[in-house]
Amino acid sequence: MPYVPNTDRDRDEMLASIGVASVDELFPGVPADVRFRGVLDVPGPLSEIEVDRHVRSLAGRNKTARDTLSFLGAGVYAHAVPSVVRHVTSMPQFSTAYTPYQAEASQGTLQSIYEFQTLVARLTGLEVANASLYDGASAVAEAALLAIGATRRGRIVVASTVSPQVRAVLSTYLSALDVEIIEAPAEDGLTAIPGFDRLCEGAAAVIVQHPNFFGLLEPVGEVVHAAKAAGGLSIASVDPIALAVLKSPADYGVDVAVGEGQSLGSPPGFGGPLLGFMATTRKHLRRLPGRIIGATTDARGRRGYVMTLQTREQHIRREKATSNICTNQALVALAAAVYLSLLGREGLRELAVQIVSKSHYAASALARVEGVKLRFGGPFFREFVLELPVSATVAKEELSRAGIWPGVSCGCYYDGMENCLLVSVTERHTKDDVDTLASALEAVIVERRGS
Description:
seven-stranded mixed sheet; globular; four-stranded antiparallel sheet; Aspartate Aminotransferase, domain 1; 16% strand; alpha/beta
């Protein structure tokens, strides 16, 4: 291993210290016939300038939302991120920190997590919020585990309009448990309410997404009512930006609100890192996964922050642990806290209003293309589904050659929707962007019809 900065003498001394004659003796379990022999076929040494040029050429193969006209969404969104967010999160005291076990040396990190929890509680209207969830999908699964523990029931009802990726994570999480997952059917893109109360019988929880995968606003009140009537908990996966213009989960009587916080100050990042959030009522405080940071005062009356509740089995709880969530995620949570603090209540509302206005303009403009129509009616936020006269996958491939990513093909997740395209619009899109997509889509349709 010439790239390891150890001399032959260093290696000989280490081998002698542990009582073996060669490096090969460290790997007796690896069969000799599969061990690599000889010299790796890699280029020779390069100068720093050459390495920099080579790495930049490799990075240039990636296409980002800045290089293309992107209408991708379905859970991860390209919002404008104010420069101050990156400035704060790049500070070494935050970017190099890990789990703040030692409170006296981690007050900055602890306070940033505390502020994040406070902002999540205010957004959702619920009493307590936690930190350290990986993403919105695992937050849904952790909320299901909370409900199973609270009700001692083994049945989860999840709306089929919840993101397919989220439902896949939920299924994986619960696969080792004796838990039945029932998918509630949809009608015209929304959870079908007729017969829904019967599905909820004996359920630990009912899970709904609002807005749902198609961008539509679900009948959350009716879903919550059915869950409560059946004695189960209601779990709502919500869009944090949409909460600026929609009723809060608390207003609906939701027991647990979860969601994906990537849109709050983090770029898409090729799918990560993401940020899960969770809030609930005081009743379920001790069942929350991850950790809860609390504020207190020391012996001199000075304000301080500590890890108040920790649910991991590594934290002495062993078999009493309610979760194995173990990554801090504090840096992404800090980005969300800075972003929300910078925008404030009115700024967040203005952002949401812009998204509503621009997405509805886009829906109208694209539906005017011959052969294209909106698949679903009713109000929506940020995203909508177009039904095309051609395969959505084919349209995507054609448009990508022109540097346009028009959206996500619904046929990848739902049968009978092979011609449907989920289009996402944020505040970054302009009227010209939408008109460009409409013209390019129209050209593709004309070409495919003529071929």
